Amino acid sequence: MRKILTVIRKEYLERVRSKSFVIGTLLGPALMSMFILVPVLVAEKGGDDVRTVGVIDPAGLYFDSLMDVLADEGQDNVKLELIESGTVDESLGEMKKSILDESIHSGILIAVDFLDSGKATFYNKSVSASVMRDEVLRPAMNRVLREERFAAAQVPDTLFAYLAARTVWSNIGVTPEGGEEVQDEDVGFIMAFILIMIIYIMVIMYGSHTLTAVIEEKSSRMVEVLLASIAPGDLMLGKVMGIGLAGLTQFAIWSTALFAIGQRGVSVGDVSFDTAFLTPVILINFIAFFLLGFFLYATLYAGIGAMCNTVQDSQQFHTPLVMGLVLPMMMLGLVLRSPDSTLSVVLSLIPLFSPVIMFMRVCVETPPVWQIGLSWILMIGSIWLAARMAGKLFRMGILMYGASPTWATLIKVLRT
Fold first, then answer.
1. pTM of the model
2. Count of helices and strands (H, E) across the chain
3. Contact 222, 312 (CB under 8 A)
4. What fold characterizes domain 48-167?
5. Helix 280-307 and helix 185-219: axis angle, to 10°?
6. What is the distance between the alpha carbons of residues 335 and 342, in angstroms, rounded to a whole number?
7. Which residues contact 110 (CB under 8 A, 6 or more apart)?
8. Beta strands, E only, 312-373
9. How far apart are CA 245 and CA 247, in angstroms?
10. Helices (H), 46-87
11. 221 by DSSP, 3-state: which?
12. Cα(85)–Cα(93) distance, rounded to whole angstroms?
């Protein structure tokens, strides 16, 4: 035990005292904010430059109405320009020329019988313009059509306002005790995504540290000296524990900073950090899935590192492991739409996916306790199995030199 503690202490201090640890601890939240907060702020501010849209309105009835609707909807990033050059064909030729020389972004030809047919033609140079068409111009033209038809039918303004009214929603969450609480879905989602990104980044980063640490000692032949006084399994356990404690230290610093920010009510744009989201259930699962996810991946990385002579050799094994965390990140949309579906439940119980998908389910809509407990049990069982396999790889591969390892070599060692 004393020898294991010595290895743990060495690995821990070696990383905590390094400049990369300090820089990573300071810059980590900033880098994560780039992936999380910046897109939110860009979405709030519109994120687009002002785009000029040419409009051909042969009937001369709809251009002003379209401008009023866009102004009322707050679409300040779209500027309309009326194009009138004699006939419709001449105006269309001028609009096409302006689109090609990029003096305008795109154009709309409103049919003369727009009131009856509702037809409008959109001209553009880039397929990306269809996003603005569908999100901005189409809803605005639909509203113009409705208002013009109401006006043509001489519907009183009071009746029009009554028919055009929109529902006003407020969201109330029901507490386990049957009470009520006001929910802010945006804040909850952002906080959940921040916590998932912490788990995702930390597990990959410190799992990779375990891989490179084993390879470096193996290539420097230092491991031969260490194995003279400590068993290979104890050496692997000490490395995994020491690197894990370093990750847990960084994890604790980031979590404390996040909690402190939330306590002070810091806001960025319309996004505020609310510690009310960090319920005991979420905090416990946050810590549990970080630790379980790290030890699962770190033990696998340690075993693979023992088989490889260089970092380049490890890439063929590294990529499949990383996909165990990348794939669930790609499936988060599915979980958000239906956290209790059979597919979401099954995916969240797969040990390699659980740290991301099960934790997202906990944040979105806490699943039954038996499902959370089962995911923990399956992960612990997987860690035990991974530790046995990694221990065998570590014992047999730590002194292997020469040819680059292959999948066949790895399978052969595991079957020995």
1. 0.65
2. 18, 8
3. no
4. D-Maltodextrin-Binding Protein; domain 2 (3.40.190)
5. 20
6. 10
7. 55, 56, 57, 58, 59, 62, 63, 120, 141
8. none
9. 5
10. 63-72
11. coil
12. 9
For 384, the token pair is 């035990």
CATH 3.40.190 segments of the chain: 48-167
HSE of 236, CA atoms in CB hemisphere, 13 A: 28
- Reading the chain (416 residues) residue by residue, the pLDDT tens digits are 777 788 788 778 877 887 777 777 777 666 666 655 565 555 555 455 788 899 999 888 889 889 988 888 888 888 899 988 778 888 899 999 998 888 888 999 999 888 888 899 999 887 778 888 888 899 999 989 988 888 888 888 788 778 777 777 766 766 666 666 655 556 667 777 777 877 887 788 777 777 777 777 666 666 666 666 777 667 777 777 888 788 778 777 777 776 666 555 555 555 555 556 667 788 888 888 888 888 888 888 877 777 777 777 677 777 777 888 788 888 888 888 888 888 888 988 988 888 888 888 888 877 888 999 999 999 999 888 887 777 777 666 665 655 566 666 667 666 66
Helix (H, G, I), strand (E, B) or coil at 174: strand
Q: Which two tokens stand for residue 177?
A: 């005790």
Strands 271-272 and 267-268, sheet pairing: antiparallel
CA separation, residue 178 to residues 78, 171, 278, 400 (Å): 47, 15, 20, 62
Q: How far is CA 349 from the centre of its chain?
A: 20
Q: Which residue has the tokens 């743990």?
A: 8
Cα–Cα dist 292/286, whole Å:
10
